[in-house]
Every structure is written in structure tokens, then in C-alpha cells.
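Figure S4 source data
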Amino acid sequence: MKKIEILLVEDEENLHDTLKLNLEMEGYSVSSSYDGAHALKQIQSAHFDLIILDIMLPSLDGFAITETVRLHNIETPILILSAKNTSANRVQGLKLGADDYLTKPFNLEELLLRVAKLIQKTNTSKQSTAIDEYRFAGHTLNFKLLEATSNKGEKITLTKKESMLLQLLIENKNTVVTRERILQSVWGYQVYPTTRTIDNFILNFRKYFEQDPKSPVHFISIRGLGYKFLD
């Protein structure tokens, strides 16, 4: 079973080491960052199942990171840790897109419970949105049977990865799905060296399902970010 990937962003070394050790003892895989700008680069170049994020960081604070992450349509759950314990700070963090907010000092057991709940909530949401069949523009996709029928009545046999990528894009229709998320979800790599593989898959989808593959209306590339499905 693949380990849950957590990015821990905290510049206070003693606290960072304590949290990392305890999270790893719970069975999580933990990547570390001590700096805001470095953390943002990690988030944009790799997939994580959860981000634990301090507010007061060198170079870029946690609020700015949260806002940037959400503006890029990265939906990874964010748990903010902060010495700022006013309700205004809490509201600001949640408004910017954080999923939870824990003030320092905090109980370690409570943090671990909140981490587990956020991950469980995300997994439940993913399972509940899973689809077996989908229709658009006269095409029918059957993810269980790994096949599709085009609007011209042609049968198309899909590979397992084609089916997985189609399902991921459709479950997130009208939303940009980042290359990093695709590579993690479909290929299982935290970091992958090239996006050419995904580009080839998208080209195949356009051949299968677009009226004019050179002017796609369903499978759209968003330069520098990822891909979007429109039905």
C-alpha cells in the first residue's frame, strides 16, 4: 500500500524534528521544508496528500503559500500551525483555503488526530466521486471494461492508464488538473522527469473524441499548469 505523503513546513527546528518523527511513527512519509519559497516550489513540483504549514516562515509566509496554492487549483488539504491565535488570523487562514487551523502550543495527539481526519476525509471524498461510466458529446466511456464507444459508433479499447487518466480528468471536469497530480495519481511517482508521456495520452484522447483534434474543445492543455476536461 502506498504511503501517505506529507509536506511539513516549519522553520523551528526542534518542533520540526519532533513532528517529523511522530508523523513517521504513524506510518506517514514526510518531506521537509524550513522556508516559504522552497515549500512553494516543492508543492508545485510534487504531489502531497497533506501539507502541514507554519505561518511565520522565512521568505514567504504561510498565508501567501495557501493563497498561491489554491489559485493554482491545487486541492491538497492544508493544516495551518500558527502562534497567531486570534480569531481574525484563523478566519483569514480558512478564507484563503486552509482546511484546518491549529494554534501553538498544541497537543501532539490532537495534531495527529486532525492529520488522520483530514486524510480520511480526502480519501472518502475520492471514493464517493468514483464513476464507472460516463457520456459526453455522444461518446460513452466504460472505465470498468476499459473501453469506449465514439459518437460514430466505433469501439475503442483503452489501456489501464488511459482509463485512469480519463477518469481523473472527468472527475475534476472544468478544473485544471496539475501535471504533478496526474503523474502521482496515474503513474504513482512523487516526482516525474517529463510531461511528454501525458502529452501523448492527451493527443490520443483528442484523436478518439475530438471532432477536430487540432482544435480541441474537450481536452485542453493549460500552459505551465496542466490539463482540463470540458464536456
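Figure S5 source data
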Amino acid sequence: MTSGQKACDTSTIERFLEGRLDADELPAFEQHREDCPACRECLESRAADADCWSDARDDLPRDCAATRGVDFDGRSTPSRGEILRNRELLADAVDVDALLAMVKPYLAPTDDPRMLGRVGTYEVMGIVGAGGNGIVLKGFDAALNRAVAIKLMSPRLADSGTARRRFSREAQAAASVVHDNVMAIHAVSETIGLPYLVMPYVRGPSLERRLRNTGPLAVPEVLRIGMQVAAGLAAAHAQGLVHRDIKPANILLEEGVERVKITDFGLARAADDASLTRSGVIAGTPQYMSPEQARGEAVDHRTDLFSLGSVLYASCTGRSPFRAESSYGVLRKICDAQPRNVRDLNPAIPIWLVRIIDRLLAREAQRRYASAGEVAALFELCLAHVQQPSAVALPDAA
């Protein structure tokens, strides 16, 4: 196989976005990318499909830094050598040295030798992780004495107008939704020509990491997650926004599942945005997108309800409802097939919860619930019933 063929291979592009190309492969791919419009288009498209930044963070030791630093409360953090000696704590796709080399040119000098540098007014304490469109740093906001997460757009996409627009749209969309279950945006700015946004530093895994580590969740946890995600979506929909990429990696579990936060609004669009409703455009994560998304058709807020149903299916069973060996195969199944019954995979799930999930997963949008607010209210009543079955009856809607 020639180097050009290898560079055009999808797996090579995936490894590039994840920072896993070795020193011999990277220069050849960079040169190929400059000469290949198809690869450039694919890279820009993949920037919209990046996993939530927290998924990479969840694989790292809590409060770790890429070089020696201090936690915001003064506790020492491990050195880079200490981190790299504990490879079992790192994600295979996370190359701390490569990320550090990529970020360093965009950090301003700092007077604190324990820090990596500065981004705007924030001291950079360490590298948290990376996704396809950004690198996340742990920062310290001295003015408010708090830790923050700084999402820096990937330098590899610095020259991509499409990637910059998506990054800007994420900040604008998330900032317009003020809700306990939606990740807040503290600030948006640029450092040495590279845009970044500042968010709260959330301790806790993503739902994807939780499912990967522990498998299916208990019914009360499923209901609590469903209720809070639906409430966050209702707030976004009230602002006229459709998230379009609800999946376990974009759901953060702060303090267990007591508080859930939706993140990564990189694909969010206004419901009346012409570019959102035009046909033939597929954007999102295949395993969790709706049939109308998979077909590139017009979508509205009900596409997020289908994705929520897929998330709840995964929470009950430990696996996504539509699985295949390729993205194309997944899209075909979403459009044409019914997922296995939840109780076939987990008999502990009550029939009434299966029926709710099935309705969320209805292939025709009009057969799903009318709104995310309706779903949130339903799950609140169901959770009350599960917690106090003798005092609270199961709602009729279930």
C-alpha cells in the first residue's frame, strides 16, 4: 500500500485526530493533507464528531498534570514522569508529551514555575485530555480562586474556517442556555490566534466512562439521568436550540449521578437554521443519532429525544441499541431495524421503563413524546414511585 493510500485511510485520520500518529507517520500525513481535498474535508467533518472532552479526562488520574504543578487548593500533583510510569491510568489515545508539545506555542509565559503557562488570565496547571476538535487544560482562575476547564481549539484545525465556526457555535449555544444540567460557559476568547472557551472544572466521569467501567445502571440511576438530561434539553429547546449529539460521552456525572450536565454543543443549531434543516447533511454520532439524522433529513427537537432514548437504552443494557461493524451499517440499522428488547439484555428493567424507552426510540418523530419537558416530568414521577412505591403510584403515562 502506498503512503498516499494509507494517508487517505479512515483509521489513519482517526489516529491523527487522536494524536496517535508516530514521528515517522506524522510528517507524511501532514504533507498528504495539504494536497488532498478529500482528507481536508474529512478532517473538518470529523471535527464536528469529536467525543466529549471529559471522556479523555476520565482516563487520567484526578488532578493530574502533564508536568509538575499544583492543584488549586495547594496540593501537589504528580510529575509527568510519575504519570507516564502509571500507564494503566492513561487512555491509550492520550499522548501527554505530544499534547504538551502541541499546546506550548499557544501558552503565554508564567511567573509561577509550577505552572505550564498562561491562557489569558488563567494559569494552566495541566493537560486534562483531548478530543477531535479541542484540547482541554486544567486552569486556575486566581480572581475567583477556583479551578476551571479551558477548551482550546486543536491547533491542527487552526486554519479551518469550518472548525472555527463550529467552535464558536459551541460557545454561543451553550452560553445561551442557563440551566443546572447544562455545562456553563464562563468566558470565550483567543490566545495567540487560537480560540478557547472556559468552563467549570467538573469532577466525575462521563456516562460513557461509567458504563464502560461498571456496566448497566440501577433503575433509580437510569431515571435520575433521564430526568436531568431531559430537563437540560428542555432548557436548550426553549432557546430554540437542537443539540444533535446527545450521547453518553457528552453527559457528565458530577458527584455520582446526583447532578448530570450536558456538554459539547458543537453541533447545536437553532431549530430554524437553514443549514440544520437542509437535506443530505449527516452530522452527529452514528450510534445515537435519530433516523431522520441518519437519512440527512430535516430535524427538530425530537431528534434529541431519540438520542436520549438511545442513551437510556445503553444505561439499562450497557450497550448502544444499534450496533454494526461500520458506521454505514449502524445508520442502516437505525433506519431499518428494531433494537433488541431491553429486558432480553437486562431482565431487571421494569416493563414500564422499557415502554418509555421504546417510545423515545420510535422511528417516526411524531410517535415520540411531544417535548423534553414532558419526558423530564414523567421521569420525576417514575423516580418518586421507585423510591416510595407504597406512597407514590406509577404515573398513568408510564
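The first helix runs from residue 3 to 8. The chain is about 40% helix and 15% strand.
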